[in-house]
Amino acid sequence: MVNHSDHNFDYTVVGGGLFGAAAARHLSYQGHNVLVFAPEEPQERVSHEGVFASHYDEARITRMLDADEIWSDLAQTSIKRYQQIEFDSGIKFHHNAQYLFLAHNEDDSLNLNINVAKAHNIDFDLLDSFSLNTRMPFLQIGIDEKGLLEPSPAGYVNPRALLRAQLKCALDKGIQLENQIVNELVETSNGVEIITSEGHRYFTSKVLLTTGVHTNYLLDSPLDLYIQGRMVVFVKLSDSLVKSLSEMPSISHHPANRVNTYLLPPVKYPDGSTYVKIGVHNSERILKSDDEIREWFRNGTDKHEKEIAYQSIVELIPTLEGQPIHTETCAYTMTATGHPYVGMLSSHIGVAVGGNGMGAKSSDEIGRLGTAVLQGEIIDKCFTPIQEKFVSGRSKFHL
Ligand SMILES: Cc1cc2nc3c(=O)[nH]c(=O)nc-3n(C[C@H](O)[C@H](O)[C@H](O)COP(=O)(O)OP(=O)(O)OC[C@H]3O[C@@H](n4cnc5c(N)ncnc54)[C@H](O)[C@@H]3O)c2cc1C
Q: Are 15 and 37 in contact (CB under 8 A)?
């Protein structure tokens, strides 16, 4: 066993996902001595024994329009920093594509989005179905639907590239990056001893946990979190479809008689093909244990959801009918409040978790808030972490 106890750090970030990488960048820019545990994305999921993350993809919607003011604020603050992060890292992750919130006339969230947008000076056009069909002839929009079109910088971010960009900035400022899983945190009177699955030990004054779906397995008193298993359907595009959908925005769709969905415009993937992606807000699929989470990432599938997603996308974009499709699974962390939990759990351990399925675009500000609480700053009460009330003998993390 290697003993790293003589390695003392001011701050340690456990979890190099989007929140953790953002926190690492902010801490490194302040000149601190920072250690980051960031296990790499598995090469092959099926045989992966380690931890998983919510960002294994090439596109996440970015937008300021939101029915919730807090989320809208987090997005606005983060989006303002995209250019600087791209400049500092030399890595492009942000794509201007616009964002369309499309809903049937009676959907309450139309007005909620409009109210937040007006209160926060967010640019948008309110368009009826005729204007939408004229501007976006590739979409088949119902007569009873309206859209809020948010101009660029709305569009999408590439979460893998955003992660690389944040870590590159932090590495340039001298952080230490470890591709290791943390198994245990032992809090002492002046800091925290960190023990990894490889048996290495480190010592740090303060720790920020940004461990996403695996967070509760590191805590003695778990947080009131639940993990939602999600599936996405990718539709492969021919060259002519790539061309005809080139003006497609990122979309959230709340139709009258179907489930709510979200869609990403054509995005080129590492396999060289271009896909349009759809996700369905269909069933609640709560993953109740760490084993269930890992199994969902490795082998999860749901034929029924795949069919619903396919029908939904073909109804909205009829030219996609008959194109090859495949699915992927993912999971994300939901909080009891619907907002991220950012706060101190004890004198030396803080958390920034709970993207609630929409944290990628706002990850820079959520990570920064994590660093602020570590340094004793008081932040908005809406982020206060809530402890789980009934602890059901959850077994602690062990790899
Ligand atoms: C299908 C899907 C669609 C989504 N769509 C959008 C969207 O359109 N727009 C949007 O803004 N957001 C979207 N999101 C949400 C967004 O991806 C998440 O909110 C975001 O990735 C959360 O970041 P995180 O850092 O909290 O967690 P993660 O990205 O999951 O990072 C957690 C990290 O902690 C590490 N870790 C865990 N345990 C340990 C340990 N013990 N030791 C060391 N490291 C550990 C993991 O390796 C991981 O890298 C979507 C998510 C999913 C799944």
A: yes
Which CATH number describes the domain made up of 96-156+226-334?
Answer: 3.30.9.10
Residue 371 has pLDDT above 80, yes or no: yes
CA distance 187 to 326: 45
230 lines ligand 1 (CB under 6 A): yes
What's the CA gap between 230 and 232, in Å, rounded? 7
pLDDT at residue number 389:
77
Q: How far apart are CA 294 and CA 358, in angstroms?
A: 21
| Cα gap 16→19, rounded to integer Å | 7
Instruction: List the domain boundaries for the chain.
Output: 3-56+160-221+336-383, 96-156+226-334
State if residue 358 touches ligand 1 by the CB under 6 angstroms criterion.
Answer: yes
As given in the structure block, the two tokens for residue 124 are 């948008």
Cα–Cα nearest to 102, from 63, 60, 70, 53: 63
Ligand 1 close to Cβ of residue 63 (< 6 A)? no
Q: Are 215 and 209 in contact (CB under 8 A)?
A: yes
3-state helix, strand, coil split of the chain in percent (to 5) is: 30, 30, 40
3-class DSSP state of 235? strand
381 contacts: CB under 8 Å, gap ≥ 6? none
Given the cut 0.95, state whether the ipTM is greater than it: yes
pLDDT digits (tens, 9 = 90+) for 66-105: 999 999 999 999 999 999 999 999 999 999 999 999 999 9
Q: SS3 of 34, please?
A: strand
DSSP codes of every residue in 268-334: E-TTS-EEEEEEEE----EE-SHHHHHHHHHH---HHHHHHHHHHHHHHSGGGTT--EEEEEEEEEE
Q: Is 228 in the pocket of ligand 1 (CB under 6 A)?
A: no
Distance CA 260, CA 258 (A): 7
To the question of domain 3-56+160-221+336-383 being in CATH 3.50.50.60, the answer is yes
